[in-house]
Design a protein that fits this description.
The protein has about 110 residues and is of the alpha+beta class. The protein is built from three helices and five strands, in the order ββββαβαα. The longest helix has 16 residues.
Length: about 110
Amino acid sequence: MSDIEIRDDRTAGRLEAVAAGEVVGHIEYFELDAPERALVPVHTIVEPAHEGQGIAGSLARELYGIARREGVTVAPLCPYVVKWAERHPDEAPAADPELLRAAKEWLVAHPELF
C-alpha cells in the first residue's frame, strides 16, 4: 500500500487510489446540500489485480478524513462503506437517518449519474 496515492477528484465525484500512474480503485460519491452538506459514497471499486491490499479501506478512511477536515457528514449508501463504517465507529460517525433518507431520494432522482 505504500506506493498508493489517494486523490480527490471532486469535480468527477471520485476519490481515486493511484499506483504507478494508474487508477487501481475508487469511490464514486456526490455532495448533498440539504438537509445538510454531506459526502455520499455510492460505489467502491477496486481493480481485481489489486484486491486484498487494503485499498478499499484506505479509500473509505480518506473519505471520512476529508469530511472531518471539511466539517461535513458522510452519508454512506455504498454497501462497502456502510460495513467499513460499522467496523470503525471511532473514525466514521453514524449519519442521521433523515440525512440518509435525503441522500437516497437524491440518488433516485439522479439515476443517470451512477
